[in-house]
Amino acid sequence: MKIAIIGGGISGLTLAWYLQKAGVAYDLFEADPRAGGNLQSWTTPEGYLLEVGPNSLQLSPEIEELIADLGLTDQIQDAAAVSQQRYVLRDGRYQVLPGSPPALLTNGFFSLKAKWQLLKEFRRPAAAPDANETVAHFFRRRFGSEILDYAVNPFMAGIYAGDPERLLLHKTFPQLAALEQEHGSVLRGLAKKGKGAGRRRIVTLSKGLQTLTDTLAARLTNYQPGTEVKAIFRATDGTYQLELASPQGLAAAPGYTHLAVALPTYALAPLLEPLFPQAAAALAAVHYPPMSAVYSAYDRAAVTHPLNGFGALHPKVEGAYAAGSIWTSAIYPQRVPAGQVLFTTFVGGAQYEAAATEPEEAQKAAVHAELSKFYGITGAPRWQGRYFWPRSIPQFDERIVGAHAAAAALEAENIWSVANWRAGVGVPDCVRHARQVASTLSAEK
């Protein structure tokens, strides 16, 4: 057995690491000279440590074990205690979103009508399973419109860059669909599952999350950065041959029994089209909305808001410009110079696509104006920067169904998909799935 891994983001690197530990032969090809894909950490000349992709990690068992395996445990930094509070824009001002079902009933964030709807959820019967049900339909059906608008909608926009009216429940939150079927009530099911379960730690690494992927890449024996896979061919014996492009020119890599593809669907589809045109068409249909991250730094004295939380999200019904902001300096104070604060504001996603494609200077100006309005900021930013994704997070809407079906069918052809569109968009999802695939392939050795 010999495996070609195409793509050196967190999924491809993790898969290679566990194959290497199991003694399975592999080659990992990454077109970019830099490993890590969406995990990028930048230190600016002004002294800001920025995350371009995920800003934090949920410390799942798989993530914690991988960090320990790589000798990085001493670099773990926990988020500040205030980060447990999450704010949501309501009626033009930021309010703390209740963090648990009991708090929903006692906090003044929701109306009495919404609280009554929450209590009634315990008595609502389970509906018949529906693979086409959207997240919005599910929450509207079980909890009412207010909780959908002011809790679910901003969360989906801020975390998934998504629109709950289009995202499918069984693809985005299959556990909630299962709770309804198993317990009749989602809240009753959560109460039973949650006994003895604590909230996972939110962490980063002291020099940025890119440390994780940089360290993985450095430990791999068969990692080839700056090497793009231009084409995939299949020999008469069923093995795969790759046409490679590197600074040294074109080359061929023969004799792979398996392919592991850790690419976004839009990059994978052209490679598979000659051999598997139907699968390629399904993959090409997956939607990745555009998004920008706008970084804005201010003197602390210029910002009225206490910034005592993780950040603030904007429900679509509030009509804001951005999807919301992470309060980077509140979560990790060491990432900014003393006496300053830093906002990471997200513009775009499935609900804000028009704003995402505006010119950089227009976005920065609009973000500054909105921050000034909601946070009581006086004066201009001390510094601003931007990172733009023409395609950001894959959407688990109706178009992902065909892609997942295609990926499952390709496994019979010894092609395994380990990118974030396959098993979940979070880093813990990617690491867990890559490790599972490594275990499956190792068992065939």
UniProtKB/TrEMBL annotation:
KW Oxidoreductase (keyword) present: yes
Cited Pfam families: Amino_oxidase
Q: By what name is this protein known?
A: Coproporphyrinogen III oxidase
Which segments constitute the Amine oxidase domain?
Answer: 10-438
Q: Where does this polypeptide localize?
A: Cytoplasm
State whether keyword Amino-acid biosynthesis applies.
Answer: no
What does it do? Involved in coproporphyrin-dependent heme b biosynthesis. Catalyzes the oxidation of coproporphyrinogen III to coproporphyrin III.
> In which pathway does this enzyme or protein participate?
Porphyrin-containing compound metabolism; protoheme biosynthesis
Q: Which cofactor does it need?
A: FAD
User: Reaction catalysed?
Assistant: coproporphyrinogen III + 3 O2 = coproporphyrin III + 3 H2O2
PANTHER family found in the cross-reference section: PROTOPORPHYRINOGEN OXIDASE
Where does it mainly reside? cytoplasm
